[in-house]
């Protein structure tokens, strides 16, 4: 069982550090998708209403342990303030004079955001000691800690793991909901249980396929990873994404799927183009007949129909990874069709974060049409795989 905010007792007047995941996509300083900010609201609102002095900490992007303007959390502060309905203070550093001053000035029910955690090398340091030193400095700014950044709970980082061991800690509303929703998929899914996997890199999904070959009834493969499966069957994939180092693994998975009675469904047609470009001319070909000078960009219309049929009777569906290059309108139909099928499905539907969650929002689907949309792509995959997530295990009952 995860420790909850209730376990922290009376919070009025207490400084509560909240590890959120505010790693939103930016176009310059303009937020292009505020989904992660909105996902943080239930926990932040609860703490504000409890009279806590809320100190939000997060990362954004991948700075190299030093400040970079393009990775500043400053653009997030304004949007967070709008959504909370109050002015949010901003510290221009993480543990320095600005952070200490901003935190000291907070009144009950007020909120502050500290600058990008990854501007300090201690956040992601490989050495335990370095992370611990940074975590101690962060801990000095708070009386309690709430972990609510599900997108980073699979990382052993200072603000995720060490900080939770230094202060009375609990899981936030988002982390609790994520774990509960994803464990419905892994522990005892209602059947038929259908998994849809896509995305560019097959290496990212091998562990999930491995774990689900004994659990799922059907696994539907689309996106860039499908071409390695097609190649493993001996078909031409042209200029499409291909991981030749994984061909033997894929063959073994296909054999195991057959042995376990798991239906492994591959595309029957593919949208191809001569180059990776938004305005490249698109052609639909059989998935087994991709021309040598063409690149697979999306699943084709017959595959979209096939996948819809395979999902139609599902009681549980887990989807992670787009079916094609959905950022280009000409190659978004496959991903759109999967999103639409899940939005209208009767079963328990989980969108496993990352690009899938972004696609749902970018393509204009109503998020409430899905049972759960995860905020963490990598974290959701590792939880589905059954891996130990450091940021979750440190919040179990019995730990500090």
TrEMBL record:
InterPro entries: Phosphoglycerate_kinase (IPR001576), Phosphoglycerate_kinase_CS (IPR015911), Phosphoglycerate_kinase_N (IPR015824), Phosphoglycerate_kinase_sf (IPR036043). It is an enzyme of class 2 (transferase). Its EC number is 2.7.2.3. It is found in: Cytoplasm. ATP binds at residues 205, 296, 327, 353-356. It comes from the Bacteria. One of its GO terms (molecular function) is kinase activity. It catalyses: (2R)-3-phosphoglycerate + ATP = (2R)-3-phospho-glyceroyl phosphate + ADP. Pathway: Carbohydrate degradation; glycolysis; pyruvate from D-glyceraldehyde 3-phosphate: step 2/5. Substrate binds at residues 21-23, 36, 59-62, 118, 155. Monomer. Belongs to the phosphoglycerate kinase family. This is Phosphoglycerate kinase. It comes from Brachybacterium tyrofermentans. The lineage of its organism: Bacteria, Bacillati, Actinomycetota, Actinomycetes, Micrococcales.
């Amino acid at each position: 069982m995860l420790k909850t905010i209730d376990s922290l007792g009376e919070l009025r007047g207490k400084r509560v550090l909240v590890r959120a995941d505010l790693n939103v996509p930016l176009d310059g300083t303009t937020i292009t998708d505020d989904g992660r900010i909105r996902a943080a609201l239930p926990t932040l609102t609860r703490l504000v209403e409890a009279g806590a002095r809320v100190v939000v900490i997060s990362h954004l992007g991948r700075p190299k342990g030093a400040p970079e303007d393009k990775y500043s959390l400053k653009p997030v502060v304004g949007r967070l303030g709008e959504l909370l309905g109050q002015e949010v203070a901003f510290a221009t550093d993480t543990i320095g004079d600005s952070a200490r001053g901003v935190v000291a000035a907070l009144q009950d029910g007020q909120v502050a955001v500290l600058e990008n955690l990854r501007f300090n090398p201690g956040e992601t340091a490989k050495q335990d000691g370095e992370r611990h030193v940074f975590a101690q400095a962060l801990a000095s700014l708070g009386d309690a800690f709430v972990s609510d950044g599900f997108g980073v709970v699979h990382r052993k980082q200072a603000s995720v793991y060490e900080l939770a061991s230094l202060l009375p800690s609990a899981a936030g509303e988002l982390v609790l909901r994520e774990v509960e929703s994803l464990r419905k998929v892994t522990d005892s899914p209602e059947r038929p249980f259908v998994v849809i996997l896509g995305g560019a890199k097959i290496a990212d999904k091998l562990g999930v396929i491995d774990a689900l070959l004994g659990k799922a009834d059907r696994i539907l493969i689309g996106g860039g990873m499908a071409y390695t499966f097609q190649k493993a069957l001996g078909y031409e994939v042209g200029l499409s994404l291909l991981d030749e180092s994984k061909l033997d693994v894929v063959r073994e998975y296909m054999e195991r799927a057959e042995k376990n009675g798991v239906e492994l469904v591959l595309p029957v047609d593919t949208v191809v183009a001569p180059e990776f470009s938004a305005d490249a001319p698109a052609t639909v070909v059989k998935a087994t007949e991709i021309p040598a000078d063409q690149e697979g960009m999306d699943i084709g219309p017959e595959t979209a129909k096939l996948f819809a049929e395979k999902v139609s009777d599902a009681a549980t569906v887990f989807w992670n990874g787009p079916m094609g290059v959905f950022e280009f309108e000409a190659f978004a139909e496959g991903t759109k069709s999967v999103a639409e099928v899940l939005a209208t499905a009767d079963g328990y539907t989980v969108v496993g974060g990352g690009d899938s969650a972004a696609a749902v929002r970018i393509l204009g689907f109503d998020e409430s049409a899905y049972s759960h949309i995860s905020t963490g792509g990598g974290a959701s995959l590792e939880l589905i795989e059954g891996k130990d997530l450091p940021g979750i295990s440190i919040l179990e009952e019995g730990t500090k």
